[in-house]
Amino acid sequence: MKIAIGNDHGGVELKRHLVEYLTGKGYEVIDLGAQTTESCNYPVFGQKVGQAVVAGEADYGVLICGTGIGISIAANKVDGVRCALCSEPVSARLAREHNNANIVAMGARTIGPVMAEGILDVFLNTGFQGGRHATRVGMFERIEKGEQLD
Ligand code: RB5
Q1: Does domain 2-144 sit in CATH 3.40.1400.10?
Q2: 105 CB less than 6 Å from ligand 1?
Q3: Structural domain boundaries of the chain?
Q4: Which end of the chain has a smaller Cβ tally under 10 Å, C or N?
Q5: Could you say which residues of the chain have pLDDT below 50?
Q6: pTM for this structure?
């Protein structure tokens, strides 16, 4: 399975840890940066990872900034992205089961590396439940197309 990963300056250290963790588990990791702690703009990396996932270059995406908030907002501006900001594994499970999230975002300033590993383990190993959730997830695409839902 291929994972695209991206981060800003605040997420470099946690990103490096997670690249090693995921590679050790046999995932192919595409690291789209940033690679240094020099101040940079998180939307750049949210967009890059979002585009890689939507294009099918990666099965899932992982995004990290200080809080995970800015980079998840940026990723969700890319049509086809369903990015969930998670700070614990229950949200990661439900993001996959109910929302069919294709990217998980995390905050390097809000969670530690062991929690991040737990979130990834759950996110990458949980399937979408479909059914009533598929109807709702389908509405995301309709919003992207400019349709008024109700
Ligand atoms: C960068 O200082 C910080 O704003 C960023 O990492 C993130 O927390 C934004 O949401």
Answers
A1: yes
A2: no
A3: 2-144
A4: C
A5: none
A6: 0.98
